[in-house]
Design goal:
The chain has 25 helices and 30 strands. It is of the alpha+beta class. One of its GO terms (cellular component) is cytoplasm.
Length: 719
């Protein structure tokens, strides 16, 4: 118990009631708390004295803190389906909500966040309870849940969306997310890397870290929804995350990141609107305990940042001890190597308060200290010099702390938040000297830089880079040569297919799944296996069929990786229409003859085995989906089947005008036959597909019974 609590406190405890934590999953959608009195006199006394709220607005600030947080959603921006999702939300669900009343209360229609680009983020005051009171809202709720599961929508607090936007990500950037769980910001970073959907392997990547092993798997769940080959989840203490090496032109160099997201553990008093228990737990001691950890993580972040790179430091705390004090100390330690960036024009429409340059400390007993010289000796272990503003007026002015941004809840009906953008202009002072070599055989490129000097009087000594023994769940990559042989021919993979990027989890025995990572992540994996604890990386692109060789290849395509593989596949492709999509996703095992004439003709020319079912937009038909659809399937002897996870199947059905809902008693609505909707509802999840393709190999015996139940596609509900 004690050890687990310490781990949570070091890099995750504050986040459960802070930066995101469990509330990131709820994000205002009706999290149920017992009635807690939303009063904390110490909190009010503290922030009134610090004057972080403009004069005359404190009561409004406190009233906003006591109100429930609006629910917010974000549309996954990089996916080609984003415009279709936005169109569905605006033209179907939001219009229905506008004139809706429940128990005499008019429901407020969702509004786009003014500062988020391209109307990709929306907020509303509807709670989960309200969502379930009306059949129309219940359908909206099911839509949100389903689209969230397949990665097209994220339910994320509004202010949590700010740091990734301020990083200004480009597809070639190498990004470190230091305290990433539960992963909503990480998902944004991945989306930005994939801004061009026609590029399956951007040059950049995201390494997402968290100290808590269990929370790392929350992070994996978030990342897997996006099916990116450019994400790696690792498990380290962010304050001493190991420095990695990469091979360039035959020599090993230190990996420096173009962008670093430093969203540190915090006391979370900006989250009182959603984390109600913070009201009774809040004390000034929380910030005093976290300040040192926050500073160490920030220092480690800028150490690993490339010169000219950008780091965003953020907390969901309003307390300057966790905010400006950390930034001021970081700038002072950097001796001019870091600069605060003016980001005021980066998010037009965002209201914020500039950072403050004067603050003081208060103990939980109510004792105030304005300067380190006032702190009694017996409190020196709890209160440190770095918690106070710089005393030199010129130095303080040169830091430009007013460029920090503090978001107050009452200004735009959000949570409280703090963010600062830092640019690295040169090496950190302790990195400027030639690092000592660890042994005679070491070279300067592999030696570790010296650590920053310990703060005077803190009882710590400089430490060397900790050696890390990897107990990663991913083994070093093992290229699968068969992709260049039998299977490469079966799918007619193009000559530029990056076969070395195909990885397996194990060296021995038959490989069950094959994964792909980008070339750059493969480089990281190969050169850091002993220093890095990897939890997850790569996107699944192939799964093994038992006795699959008789069908031309032992591996069938996996839906998760179809958009990664698609640019390289030149065979086993059937071009389908909107009506074909409906048939394939509402019928269990349709006969080949159920397809349209063109698709039927293509299917008859193919041997049994794994296939790609490809829909291309028809620009002449504006009512049809205006984005491509790629489905994995199996061509049987006389039938055909799509292998698509349940929520993704529902997503594609919505795109082609078919809605499948359950009412409150669990009965289906929408006009489709029971068997069809059952198929849509009960399609295999990714982990349940393993034996289905093998069953399809003997589908001659199954066609009669399956077809008799599912050949009534004319009953599909089209909207």
């Amino acid at each position: 118990m004690g050890k687990r609590n310490r781990n949570r406190g070091r890099n995750g405890g504050g986040r459960d009631g802070g930066a995101e934590g469990k509330s990131d999953r709820d994000s205002g959608w009706g999290a149920g708390y017992a009635d807690i009195i939303k009063e904390n006199k110490l909190f009010e006394q503290y922030y009134q004295e610090l004057k972080i709220v403009p004069e005359g607005e404190f009561e409004e600030f406190m009233e906003a803190m006591r109100e429930p947080l609006p629910a917010t959603i974000r549309i996954t921006g990089y996916k080609s389906h984003a415009k279709e999702i936005l169109h569905t939300l605006k033209e179907k669900y939001f219009k229905d909500i506008q004139d809706l009343e429940i128990d005499g209360q008019k429901i407020e229609a969702p509004q786009a966040l003014s500062w988020y680009p391209d109307e990709q983020a929306w907020h509303t005051n509807m709670s989960r309870k309200i969502l379930r009171k009306s059949p129309l809202l219940e359908k909206f709720h099911q839509f949100l849940v389903s689209e969230t599961e397949c990665g097209n929508i994220s339910r994320q607090e509004a202010v949590s969306m700010i740091p990734p936007l301020l990083l200004k990500i480009e597809p070639h950037h190498k990004i470190l997310d230091m305290c990433a769980a539960p992963g909503s910001k990480t998902a944004q970073l991945i989306e930005m890397l994939h801004s061009d959907m026609d590029v399956p392997f951007p040059e950049g990547f995201v390494i997402a870290n968290d100290v808590d092993n269990k929370r790392c798997y929350l992070l994996v769940h978030q990342a897997k929804r996006l099916n990116s080959p450019c994400i790696m989840v690792v498990n380290h203490d962010a304050s001493c995350i190991p420095r990695l090496m990469v091979e360039q032109n035959g020599t090993k160099d230190v990996l420096f990141y173009d962008r670093v997201l430093c969203d540190v553990p915090c006391s979370g008093d900006g989250t009182m609107r959603k984390n109600i228990d913070v009201w009774k737990k809040w004390t000034t001691s929380n910030s005093l305990h976290l300040h040192g950890l926050q500073l160490r993580i920030a220092v480690r972040g800028v150490e690993q940042l490339a010169v000219s790179g950008r780091m965003v430091y953020s907390t969901c705390s309003l307390n300057p001890i966790e905010d400006e004090a950390v930034i001021a100390s970081l700038l002072e330690k950097s001796e001019g190597a870091l600069e605060l960036v003016d980001a005021s024009a980066d998010l037009p429409g965002l209201k914020y308060m500039p950072g403050i340059t004067s603050w003081k400390l208060m103990t939980k007993e109510g004792q105030w200290y304005s300067d380190w010289s006032e702190v009694p000796t017996n409190r020196h272990t709890q209160i440190r010099p770095t918690m106070f503003p710089p005393t030199d007026p010129e130095k303080l002015q040169s830091m430009k702390l007013e460029r920090c941004m503090r978001i107050l809840p009452h200004h735009q009906n959000t949570g409280g938040f703090f963010v600062a953008v830092l640019m690295k202009k040169g090496p950190m002072p302790w990195n400027r000297r030639q690092p000592k070599l660890r042994n005679k055989g070491a070279t300067p490129s592999t030696a570790q830089p010296e650590e920053p000097p310990a703060e005077e009087g803190d009882g710590q000594t400089p430490s060397e880079e900790p050696p890390c023994i990897s107990d990663a769940s991913e083994n070093p990559p093992e290229p699968e040569a068969k992709k260049d042989g039998v299977c490469g021919t079966f799918y007619n993979l193009s000559s530029d297919f990056p076969k070395l990027n195909v990885l397996t989890r194990t060296h021995e025995g038959k490989k069950r799944h094959l994964y792909m990572v980008s070339k750059e992540l493969r480089n990281v994996l190969l050169n850091n296996s002993e220093r890095m604890k990897v939890i997850n990386t790569g996107v699944k692109v192939w799964s093994r069929n038992n006795d699959g060789e008789q069908f031309g290849c032992a591996f069938r395509l996996a839906q998760e990786g179809i958009y990664t593989l698609n640019p390289y596949i030149r065979a086993r492709v059937i071009n389908i229409s909107v009506e074909d999509v409906k048939v394939l996703l509402t019928e269990e095992n349709p006969f080949l003859s159920r397809l349209g004439e063109d698709a039927h003709a293509q299917a008859k020319k193919l041997e049994m085995g794994s296939i790609v079912l490809r829909y291309q937009p028809d620009l002449k038909d504006p009512d049809a989906p205006q984005c491509p659809i790629e489905l994995c399937g199996w061509r049987g002897k006389t039938s055909i089947r799509a292998f698509v996870p349940r929520n993704e199947r529902l997503h594609y059905l919505r795109m082609v005008g078919v809605e499948v809902f359950k009412d409150k008693q669990g009965k289906k609505e929408g006009g489709a036959s029971e068997s069809q909707e059952g198929n849509a509802e009960n399609t295999e999840e990714p982990g349940q597909e393993e034996d289905t393709a093998e069953q399809e190999q003997s589908d001659t015996e199954q066609n009669g019974s399956a077809q008799s139940k599912t050949n009534n596609s004319e009953d599909v509900s089209s909207t």
